[in-house]
Specification:
alpha/beta, globular
Length: about 140
């Protein structure tokens, strides 16, 4: 999402042939976004998504705009706010993703972040956040 407008010519050229555009957010506000997406630019992301929504509406109205959110200990509390942000941005669908251990962290640290695991101490809080947001807990 941070590079969409930098690649505007390519996006505008390909958009009529695209069925789904997926943009990764992983947060509903700037602070968690910057912790998760080091060097990410929150305001640029939002500006680009607004621009993309406008382009889709005018050039490819059948294209669905989706938002990806990898659920983890640093962002799960933002789930209800993220649903509201997506509503404001006119996102068509949210894809909730669980974490996978790609070797980024040692197993112990990964386990601390993996709040979606039923044995995680914060798992009951995660369930409540999904309930508050009226979202299914099925994750990709």
């Amino acid at each position: 999402g941070s590079y969409l407008k930098k690649k505007a010519d390519l996006v505008e050229h390909l958009l009529p042939s695209v069925d789904i555009m997926r943009v990764s957010f992983d947060a509903a506000t700037a602070a968690p976004y910057h912790r998760i997406r080091v060097n990410g630019q929150w305001h640029t992301l939002l500006e680009n998504v607004r621009w993309l929504r406008e382009k889709i509406d005018h050039v490819a109205p059948t294209c669905r705009l989706t938002a990806d959110f990898v659920v983890q200990s640093t962002n799960f509390r933002e789930i209800p706010d993220f649903v509201e942000l997506c509503r404001q941005l006119k996102i068509d669908h949210i894809i909730w993703q669980k974490m996978w251990n790609w070797g980024t962290w040692p197993q112990e640290e990964f386990d601390r972040h993996n709040v979606y695991h039923p044995n995680h101490e914060l798992y009951p809080d995660l369930v409540k956040k999904f309930q508050i947001a009226r979202q299914p807990m099925s994750l990709v």
